[in-house]
Amino acid sequence: MLKWIFAIMLTASVIFGAASGNIGEVSSAALNSCVEAVDLFLYLLGGMCMWGGLMRVAEKSGLTDLLSEFFKPLLKHVFKGLDLNGKAFHAICMNITANLLGLGNAATPLGLEAMRRLEQEERPGDTTSRNMIMFVVLNTASITLIPTTAASLRIRHGSAEPMEILPCVLITSACALAAGLISAAALDNISKRRKHK
Amino acid sequence: MSEYLIPIFIAIIIIFGLIKKADVFGEFVEGAKESISASFEILPALIALMTAIGMFKASGGLGFLSELISPLTDLLGFPKECIPLALIRPISGSGALAVFESILSEVSPDSFAGRVASVMIGSTETTFYTIAVYYGITKVKNTRHAIASSLTADLTGFILSALTVRLILQ
Fold first, then answer.
1. CB atoms < 10 A from the CB of A82, how many?
2. Fewest Cβ atoms nearer than 10 Å: which of A114, A192, B50, B93?
3. What ipTM score was computed for the predicted complex, to two decimals?
4. How far, CA to CA in Å, does A160 sit from each of A148, A154, A156, B104, B109?
5. pLDDT by residue (tens digit) across A108-128?
6. Domain identity same for A163 and A123
7. Where are the domains of chain B?
8. Which domain holds residue A82?
9. CA of B47, closest CA in chain A: separation in Å?
10. CB neighbour class for B142 (10 Å; exposed up to 12, middle 13-18, buried from 19)
């Protein structure tokens, strides 16, 4: 799937660029985007090392055990067949905590750690496991409790009530997350049933 | 208030470690060391995706797609100003913020379109970036329905942004 998105976006940008006369911009974007990618990677590298280090401290002290006890009742329905006392589940709980608090800079490195551990525990080979999909969907939907970025930009543009959007944001995120998880579970069941036939 | 979150989060981890008599410095360094080699796994996927996104943004293709789907979004009562935001939100976080900024400088943040755009930014994430980076660190090549399900969540989020603002705030 990523193969097609990659190919379609590249082809489409050449066609649109030629049609709209933006081909010069497309050309410089082609040359500069890879440099931006390395910038972003360096930014992530620092974050991953710092949060990877803190993650290990939290594990040694038993803090992640406390967190995972808290999330277990809810998440055992989402992640089927995953060892709820294992290291992958610990990282998942840390990632969700960071997401809920709106700490995006911490959530990504912790989420990457969780993906690495999911791979070690479930050994899916080159095809993703069900729990990996669930975890990715959880992170592509937003589960932030307080929309700080949106609110701060609203303040900058003179909103009378920057936080009035909060109830809408909470309802919308909850429904979007539910739709993502339900569709992931449903598609997983369908593909399993096909395999059995 | 929110600027307290990260320092407190870090302090809790370290103080809890001290109480439980963990070697907080040694463990931190060990954990950071493990992350270094792992993080290099992401770089190739990041370069591929960001090149594709950068070229697509520069080509003006977003404007063309917005025009193409505007009859459909009118039908759903989705504000026209927010279509470019819906299109760029799944592929680029910084791009989405730039579009959000330009929407708020054209219409008031307390107008219908301004509120819908705010809810969209607050309730969705940068789907493709997340998928590319998260799977980039593993050896997984076939992501099965990860993208389809994530986009289902995004689409639900966009439709409900307009719906909840209409029902709760207007």
1. 21
2. A192
3. 0.89
4. 16, 9, 11, 13, 8
5. 999 999 999 999 999 999 999
6. no
7. 41-169
8. 36-128
9. 5
10. middle
